[in-house]
UniProtKB/TrEMBL annotation, chain A:
Residues that, per the record, bind Mn(2+): 35, 64, 67, 135, 168
Keywords in alphabetical order: Calcium, Capsid protein, Manganese, Metal-binding, Virion
Species whose genome carries this gene: Paranoxybacillus vitaminiphilus
SUPFAM superfamilies hit by this protein: Ferritin-like (SSF47240)
Pfam families: Mn_catalase
Binding site for Ca(2+): 59
Cofactor: Ca(2+); Mn(2+)
Highest taxon above the source species: Bacteria
A GO term, aspect molecular function: metal ion binding
Name of the protein in question: Spore coat protein JC
UniProt xrefs under InterPro entries: Ferritin-like, Ferritin-like_SF, Mn_catalase, Mn_catalase_dom
UniProt family annotation: Belongs to the manganese catalase family.
Cofactor details (free text): Binds 1 Ca(2+) ion per subunit.
UniProtKB/TrEMBL annotation, chain B:
Keywords for the protein's UniProt record, in alphabetical order: Capsid protein, Virion
InterPro entries: Spore_coat_CotJA
Pfam families linked: CotJA (PF11007)
Entry protein name: Spore coat protein JA
C-alpha cells in the first residue's frame, strides 16, 4: 500500500518556454532507463529477492515514482501553452498529431515504452547488477539532458534527480555487499 | 588531486571531417569508490541536504553542463 503526499519531491521550476527540452526529457519518462522503467523494475523484483534487501527495492522503487512525477511536471510545463506551430519547430509535430499536448510513455525518439526494457532474472546478484547499471545509465542520461539544456531552473531539478541516481547506485551496491555477507563488515547504518 | 571527472585523448585522424574533440571526459561518481558506507560520515545540514539530494557530503557530486560552466564557473 502507498500513501500519497500531494507535493513534488523537489520543486520543479522552468524558466523558458522551450518545448524542445520536453522532447529530450521524455526520455526519462518513457525511455529504457527512465523513471517508469526504474520504478516497475525494482518494485517487481522485490518478490524474488532475499528478505534483507526487499525494503531497499520498495523504497527506491517508490522514490522513482516521485521522480516520474517531477519529469511529468517538467514536460507538462514546457509544453502546456505551446502552439502546434511551436511544437512543430521543436520536432514534436508527430507527438501532437497522436497525443495533442498529452504526455505519453515513449522515449526521446518516440518509441513507446515496453516491458522488454526491464528484466527480472530471479537471481539476486543478476537483478541487483541490472539495477546498478540502470542507475548509472539514468545518471548519464541526466548529464546528456543537462548538456542539451540552457534552462538554469530546469537544470537545478535535473541535478537533484541525477544526485539521487548516484545515491541509489550506492545503495544497490551495498545491497550486493549485504548478500555477499562479509562477516568482518557487519556495519549497518 | 582526486576528481570524479576523468579525461582521455582519443586518436585524431588528419582526415576527420568534423573538428576533432581532442580531450574526452567521463564521470566516475563517488559511489564507485565506497563499497559499504562507513558509519559517522560528515553530513550536510538537513535543509541543505534536501536541496542537494543527499545527506552525505561524500556522495555529493553535482554535474554542470559546459554551457553552465562557461557562464557561471562554479561547481565541480
Amino acid at each position: 500500500m502507498w500513501i500519497y503526499e500531494k507535493k513534488l519531491q523537489y520543486p520543479v521550476r522552468v524558466s523558458t518556454c522551450n518545448p524542445k527540452l520536453a522532447k529530450y526529457l521524455i526520455e526519462q519518462y518513457g525511455g529504457a532507463d527512465g523513471e517508469l522503467a526504474a520504478a516497475l523494475r525494482y518494485l517487481n523484483q522485490r518478490y524474488s529477492i532475499p528478505d534483507k534487501v526487499i525494503g531497499l527495492l520498495t523504497d527506491i522503487g517508490t522514490e522513482e515514482f516521485a521522480h516520474l512525477e517531477m519529469i511529468a511536471t517538467m514536460v507538462y510545463k514546457l509544453t502546456k501553452d505551446a502552439t502546434p506551430e511551436q511544437l512543430k519547430e521543436a520536432g514534436l509535430d508527430a507527438h501532437y498529431v497522436t497525443h495533442d499536448n498529452a504526455l505519453f510513455y515513449h522515449n526521446a525518439a518516440g518509441v513507446p515504452w515496453t516491458a522488454a526494457y526491464i528484466q527480472a532474472k530471479g537471481d539476486p546478484i543478476a537483478d541487483l547488477y541490472e539495477d546498478i547499471a540502470a542507475e548509472e545509465k539514468a545518471r548519464a542520461t541526466y548529464q546528456w539532458i543537462i548538456n542539451m539544456s540552457d534552462d538554469p531552473d530546469l537544470n537545478d531539478g535535473l541535478r537533484f534527480l541525477r544526485e539521487r541516481e548516484i545515491i541509489h547506485a550506492q545503495r544497490f551496491r551495498e545491497a550486493v555487499e549485504i548478500l555477499k555477507e562479509e562477516r568482518d563488515r557487519k556495519k549497518f547504518f | 588531486m582526486f576528481t570524479t571527472r576523468k579525461q582521455y585523448h582519443p586518436y585524431v585522424s588528419p582526415f576527420d571531417p568534423c573538428q576533432p574533440i581532442r580531450t574526452k571526459t567521463y564521470v566516475t561518481p563517488p559511489n564507485l569508490y565506497i563499497a559499504f558506507q562507513p558509519p559517522n560520515l560528515p553530513q550536510f545540514p538537513l535543509h541543505e541536504a534536501l536541496k542537494k539530494g543527499t545527506l552525505w557530503k561524500v556522495f555529493y557530486d553535482p554535474y554542470y553542463s559546459p554551457y553552465e560552466m562557461a557562464h557561471k564557473g562554479d561547481g565541480q
